[in-house]
Amino acid sequence: MQTSADRQDRHQYPAHWEADVVLRDGGTARIRPITVDDADRLVSFYEQVSDESKYYRFFAPYPRLSAKDVHRFTHHDFVDRVGLAATIGGEFIATVRYDRIGADGMPASAPADEAEVAFLVQDAHQGRGVASALLEHIAAVARERDIRRFAAEVLPANTKMIKVFTDAGYTQKRSFEDGVVRLEFDLEPTDRSLAVQRAREQRAEARSVRRLLAPGSVAVVGVGRAPGGVGRSILGNIREAGYTGGLYAVNKVFPEDLKEVDGVPAHRSVRDIGGPVDLAVVAVPAEQVPAVVAECGEHGVQGLVVLSAGYAESGPEGRERQRALVRAARAYGMRIIGPNAFGIINTAPDVRLNASLAPEMPRPGRIGMFAQSGAIGIALLSRLHRRGGGVTGVTGVSTFVSAGNRADVSGNDVLQYWYDDPETDVVLMYLESIGNPRKFTRLARRTAAAKPLVVVQGTGTAPQGHAVRATRLPYATVSALLRQAGVIRVDTITELVDAGLLLARQPLPAGPRVAILGNSESLGVLTYDRCLAEGLRPARPVDLTTGATAEDFHRALAAALADGTNDAVVVTAIPAIGEGSPGDAELAEALRSAAAAVPGKPVLVVHVELGGLAEALSAAASTAPGAGDRAPGPAGAAVPAALTTPPEGTHLIPAYPAAERAVRALAEAVKYAGWRREATDPGKVPEYDDVDEKGAARLIGELLTRGQGLTISDAETCELLGKYGIPVRRALPAPTPEAAVEAARALGYPVALKATAPHLRHRADLGGVRLDLADEEQLLRAYTELTELFGQPEELRPVVQGMAPRGVDTVVRAVIDPAAGAVLSFGLAGAASQLLGDMAHRLVPVTDREATSLVRSIRTAPLLFGWRGSTPVDTPALEELLLRVSRLVDDHPEVVAVTLEPVVVAPHGVSVLGATVRLAPPPARDDLGPRTLPAY
Question: Which residues 6+ apart lie within 8 Å of 106 measured at CB?
Fold first, then answer.
């Protein structure tokens, strides 16, 4: 008879436990279940572990594993006994296992909910965060198998392992007995464990990107023997930029006696390079890439930039080729930018890397830029070059990434890097698609609280080659959620650069009050009108007349900046002709000196056909050498003068060729500054004493036994909503005139008669609703009219409902989107709001401050606050309703959709007249699970 120790794989192999993770140092590893086929790998792994680590694991000298040990550690049932391994290059670097135990500490099966857990990490990989990542994954596996608590026994001297447990953030108990530290901790995620996990994720992903952007050495694979071609161009761009690290040219067809290409050491293979290689730029045909990846992995290369095309953008065959590329790179612990990438740039003086197809290194500056397509990357760099150099100053780029198909490294990863990058003050991103909206929104909110994040968002149709999660949310809703997260949403590349230059050069405005001054009355009025259109509060323009001198501009700007009623100043300027008119350099210096005296307010210049002034504004703040000068670089390499950074703290004045562009950029800065102020106090999710969370959970569980994905009945909807303090006004069916009369008597007059057929529901404009029926005669007349107009009662499905107090009809909706998460929406009811798309959205859970802003953020909000002399309605009661709906869907993710329509907001109180609720098993939430890279 087989014992439980002899049984193998009671369950099928759990492939969904496999995952790639980023480690503390930025490298990657694969985590997967240990199987019977891993015996040799386990023995080899154990042989590479030090005697000290073995002693810490087994509490005694344990030089080698016995055959029985190997059998026990490779035979698991994936329920009561589970083992996971972290692998690189297919070989084990660490293991973890749990064994379910009972109250007596002996092996047990369910319903026992405790397990002993133990780790072993190769000494060469200790300190890389491998054990922390394994703990997250084994804990998730245990929760899936109904284990709620781990116990671990650790020797006191094993401080590293004790720290792994204590730093994880779980609720735990600690005891000491018989010379052993015993740790017990619950596996239910806590706020602290989630915060620890996300902090580790940020550090690891940021370091993985830093290894790509600041490598100590670079190999360009695919350098042609003759000038021209992608590989040779990349090599030249890296050289011309003055890259400070080691550089190598690689091509398998190089003659064996070839030693250099353009002064760069040449090799036939990455394996032939004598020293370490941190980054490989791959520019070979797609069919040759797998061999290059293997060479790089075996040589210890840390990351790849794959410029080669022919992957997912080319169709199904290319998509499979792309998956294989990612799997191969991750097997060696490498991360990939690309494939089909344009390249990367880092202008830091100690790096100076231009591993891109851009023939010219951008000016160094404080702007981080991300684009997915090469064409957009070129457009961004060229526009910033024109605007950041000869026109509006020497603002430039800190780092630039064009990720191509972003099969591995995505905008989320780069955002993790820029979050705490001291060289980047503003982030500009052109996103053709958002692969993980829930994570991007979380990262964007955190980043925007520290530095501006400006985004052009694609139309919602993902380009070929992009793996994107399906979302059911409209494009406008996703845009609104990004704005809620503090993202500055713009529509074009021009607006992206306009906003970025202002935010990189000037302080944030304290409010919307704008002073306008200049030497053109008409241009001042145009600027004034645009300010009003953008929701700003402009003062009347100050006309200095066309005869204004530089001193007049200086004096007027100084006065406007010193005026406490102004938060920003727009200076308008047109060319002036005549004796005494200021020259460009003179006027620029006058504006710069006045702005420098009061540095806390932003200043913008609108100039018309005045390139000289813009150039002078640049020169007034720049200490760069002349255009023809060259500064010395490493090993005698010449570094372009444009790579010299202006002094720290210099505020360059941005200039715009049109008033609407300047004002639009300023308006975005004002909104962002307001968001930053509010983000310091986001509010709280209130608790309500009358909420019956457990009762709601029981009811939902009972209802879901009937099937998956069901819209529950009106009575069940009322019962469920009632458990969250959301009463729905009672409505009684009226299949006959007599039933209508009986319903009205039960409810009390006056009543409303409504047709609830799908094509008439909530369509008062079609005549399917009769209101204020005061007696039986009016009710019967209305019943007859409805049946004559729309058909028989069985088609109309009429109901009788008591009249609610008069007010403003609104709509409240909540939906769980598989990509973005739970979203709460609000708007006014009626065709006009639907036609205009006038709905506001917030991510759940909603705080009290967010509920307040949600009500006020629709364009038709004035109707709630006494527009044109009407009586203001009870918005606090409306906000409470929104918060209760938010709590319901946040507490119970099985509630996948809620619609309250109409909700009548009266001067005192709200009335929910109609409600529908849909239940289903909730979508999986990977943001609450262990850290993983997207699966491929």
Answer: none
